[in-house]
Specification:
13 helices; 2 domains
Length: about 230
């Protein structure tokens, strides 16, 4: 089971080590030591939000600002996390950590049909290993980046774009693997429309709400037609 989970997470290993290094370097460039960087990756583990956290710490942002920013950046978890509720109900004591460690990439590894074993104990162990491996890669990359940033001085401008590059890569992989692409097109159209209307700093939550509303209406219509 451990070998299976490790092999499954190898694509995430390649991405998370590099992205974790980017976060560690940014933290170091803002004057935070390796210990702080590693603690953030252990207790926050929020990918793109960790990159935003660097600026929040550097500007001494208020708790309210930090909370609102976290909601805006990670609002997508509220939507795709719902689809994991039926699967995580049977995870026992592993469930709290699985909820905490559910990232975009971990979700993509566990959301498919047949990805999680049917036996409850085996399923909990497999999901726990996949989630733990993914976080371990991120923490290891963070530690390496923090050590590198503390020992080598260089211009890290633009390194935060690495998270955007990862999201694009994940989207392209899902697009190529999917047979039905209407939901992906809906997400793209809603995001672009809300970006044009609300601007770069405010479009995320509105786009999520539009997508959720359209999908809910479509689901209700389909259910009504079947009834």
């Amino acid at each position: 089971m451990c070998k299976k989970a490790f092999i499954k997470t190898l694509p995430v290993l390649a991405a998370y080590v590099v992205l974790g290094m980017g976060f560690g370097i940014l933290m170091s460039n803002h004057g935070y030591g390796p210990g702080w960087s590693v603690l953030c990756s252990v207790f926050i583990f929020a990918g793109s939000m960790q990159y935003v956290t660097v600026d929040l710490l550097a500007t001494a942002a208020s708790p309210l600002t930090a909370a609102l920013m976290t909601l805006m950046v990670n609002a997508r978890h509220l939507f795709y996390g719902i689809s994991m509720v039926p699967k995580y109900r049977r995870m026992g004591r592993a469930k709290p950590y699985l909820i905490f460690g559910l990232t975009d990439e971990t979700y993509s590894l566990l959301c498919g049909e047949g990805e999680i074993p049917k036996d409850d104990k085996t399923a909990a162990r497999y999901c726990l290993l996949v989630t733990a491996f993914d976080q371990l890669y991120w923490v290891a990359g963070t530690a390496a980046g923090a050590a590198l940033g503390a020992s080598v001085s260089f211009n890290a401008a633009g390194i935060e774009f690495s998270m955007t590059a990862l999201f694009v890569t994940v989207f392209v992989e899902q697009w190529l693997a999917a047979k039905e692409r209407r939901c992906a097109l809906l997400g793209l159209f809603a995001s672009l429309l809300c970006l044009l209307i609300f601007g770069q700093s405010r479009f995320l939550i509105s786009a999520m709400l539009v997508i959720a509303a359209v999908l809910s209406a479509a689901y209700a219509k389909r259910g009504g037609a079947r009834a």
